[in-house]
Design a protein that fits this description.
126 residues, mainly beta, four-stranded antiparallel β-sheet, 1 helix, 8 strands
Length: 126
């Protein structure tokens, strides 16, 4: 992981090493009044470092560009369970924790086919 990833999890190659099935996993941060929402990828300044030299683990600290909040994540793999794990701490640097809402934004791309995702909405009169 690098700061070039903008502090989020980008492509995850699973179950094979040649095809990504996830293109992004990030947080959306908003205020409890529902007046604004920031993407973690574009609304924060990332700092990334290895957790230690003996593991595939990183500590990512994403601080809001306006200085209002901070996300700290320990991201690691668990090869025995074929998983990526994030331990996340959200900290309000301005105001109180209750002033914020935190959402998970997950962008799957099954078999790297995320470019033609479609959605439709139908209203049922009944």
């Amino acid at each position: 992981m690098s700061e070039a990833s903008n502090g989020i999890i980008g492509e995850i190659f699973y179950p094979t090493a040649d095809t990504p099935n996830t293109t992004a996993l990030q947080f959306l941060i908003g205020d409890s009044s529902h007046t604004w929402v920031n993407q973690e990828k574009t609304g924060t300044i990332p700092k990334v470092r290895l957790y230690n030299n003996h593991s595939l683990a990183w500590i990512v600290t994403n601080t809001a560009k306006n200085g209002d909040y901070q996300l700290t994540k320990i991201i690691y793999t668990d090869p025995a369970r074929n998983s990526v794990v994030q331990q996340v701490t959200f900290k309000a640097l301005q105001g109180h924790l209750a002033d914020y809402l935190l959402y998970v934004y997950y962008d799957p791309a099954i078999h790297n086919k995320g470019d033609n995702n479609n959605i439709s909405r139908q209203n049922d009169a009944g």
